[in-house]
Hints:
The chain has about 300 residues and is of the alpha/beta class. Helix content is about 45%, strand content about 10%.
Amino acid sequence: MSIDWRGVMPAVTTKFTNDDQLDFENFELNIEAQLEAGVHGIVLGGTLGEASTLSDEEKSELTQGTVQIVSSKVPVLINIAEQTTKAAIAAAQKAEVDGANALMMLPPMRYKADARETVTYFKEVANNTELPIMVYNNPVDYGIEVTLEMFEELLACNNIEAVKESTRDISNVTRIRNEFGDRLKIMTGVDTLALESLLMGADGWIAGLVCAFPKETVAIYELQKAGRIQEALEIYRWFLPLLELDINSKLVQNIKLAEVATGIGTENVRAPRLPLVGKEREHVLGVINQALQNRPQLPDYKKHLV
């Protein structure tokens, strides 16, 4: 089993009702907007998806619901972020039963595993599922870096196919490509380095602000892919103040507020998160409103969609 690791894959937010239940009505509204814009996959249960607050039952319900909504138009990925190898294997196998097409997988949570432990953790999960795996390499936020030497060992597992590259080191895209060629697909995971990473050879973009601005995000990817770099750059320059809302501890609240502004989401978050208030809220709304006032007219990017 394999998927096409390319294009824009939104790390979607999880929608909640006013009484803190899964809100599939607003979730479907957002997913349909993503599909209409031309995204290439849907990633569930990441940081933006408030994964740490979701029960196993909710993750399962979310996966099954998303599979039904997308109806095989694009692959559905679910994030694995567990504290034990046993729990990670169980989560991967449940995702397979629920209909997920692939996994995004973080190193062990809480415990700072060393290189040997981290490699063993990934391998144990890979050897106990048929689903393709994208390793989420984010040492800035999660404290463990998956190095090139570690990937050399991991690629012995045929279903470890991609990396979500979030080291913030733009040259790492080139290092990975030089070392592994096309064997390890590269999905950039930092919104504020997205175009730079794509131009350096990344295959795609696991995106955040796409949750509120799907067409602009896909347009940047498709235009640069078609060699229309200047057009992509103009949109990206407009987008950057919004993209910076993603590299912030309140990224969930920020992006959900942006979803409200574009009419494809709600502001409901799950405690301990709370909606933004005061000057913090005013600042984020200012960034969003400024962007909406200057929202670019997009060129016809869809003719490049495959």
